Amino acid sequence: MSPAEEERSLPLPERWPRASKFALSACAAAVAELVTFPLDLTKTRLQVQGEAAVRRDGAAAGRAVPHRGMLRTAAGIAQEEGVWKLWQGATPAVYRHIVYTGVRMVTYEHLRDSVLGRAEGESFPLWKSVVGGMSAGAIGQFFASPTDLVKVQMQMEGKRKLEGKPLRFRGVHHAFLKILSEGGVRGLWAGWVPNVQRAALVNMGDLTTYDSVKHFLLLNTTLVDNSVTHSVSSACSGLVAAVLGTPADVVKTRIMNQPRDKQGRGLLYKSSMDCLIQTVQGEGFMSLYKGFTPTWMRMAPWSLVFWLTYEQIRRLCGVTSF
């Protein structure tokens, strides 16, 4: 049998390992995103609550929505807008994770194995894992930034309606087209800088912590590669990712949600650094951790659902372990 015929006889996951892992990562991420999405919506609403720049410029015309905590915000959305509004913006969120998670997983594995040189079954230096995780997250988020922009703006539509403002979009595709027509291709990447910064920090906590904890447990304890190991690794990765990523997430949300002029320029913040400074000066340092609780509560189950789904699909498809 010739090498070409032998290659064609191999199972698809062995012939196309990167493409197979991209596909199963995207599927696992879509499941995790839909299960935990209400927490993400709640987090986004909390992050723009009490925005100092909005108060200063008087941009929040109409009836003001009172300050609420996580539970009251979620309950308020369900009571005032409808239970299904807890999933408003879920479609672009799934689009985002198909691109973001697929790219970051494949990129991280390639960097880890081919560039940073981790051998199978050996320990991996933490600094290499950090470099790989941050790089993979930044690359994945850059490509997925337009879908994140649409997700954030659609998540705020219910709040705009309560404040007496007109809705901006009729649906996901209308949102993409409207942003593109108003700001051009560049407008689709509005807020990409803090978005990439956040993704790099989150992945330093998520991928790096999950990978490091999992391999530490397998090499140094009696635990085997099963749901218990995945659960412990996921819990650790969710906490670290939330601590590292929430400040950049607050800045990203506010920049993406701010009103813009006809040229697509922000009316409240000139840059991510300007948003950071205004937020801290106007609301205090802890305002950078608005939405931390739902972020943490979401990241741990998201990571758990993702990795359990990923591992189950991987075994069914015969893809080699992450």
Automatic annotation (TrEMBL):
Q: Does the keyword Transport apply?
A: yes
The record's Gene3D superfamilies line, in alphabetical order, gives: Mitochondrial carrier domain (1.50.40.10)
Which Pfam family would be a valid example here? Mito_carr
Keywords in alphabetical order: Membrane, Mitochondrion, Mitochondrion inner membrane, Repeat, Transmembrane, Transmembrane helix, Transport
Q: Which SUPFAM superfamilies match?
A: Mitochondrial carrier
Residue ranges of the Solcar repeats are 20-114, 124-216, 225-316
Q: Has the keyword NADP been applied to this entry?
A: no
What are the record's GO terms for cellular component?
mitochondrial inner membrane
**Topological type in the membrane:** Multi-pass membrane protein
Which reaction(s) does the protein catalyse, per the Swiss-Prot or TrEMBL entry?
chloride(in) = chloride(out)
What domain of life is recorded for the organism?
Answer: Eukaryota
Where does the record place it?
Answer: Mitochondrion inner membrane
Q: How does it assemble?
A: Homotetramer.
The family assignment reads: Belongs to the mitochondrial carrier (TC 2.A.29) family.
* Stated name of the protein: Mitochondrial uncoupling protein 4
What gene codes for this chain? Answer: Slc25a27
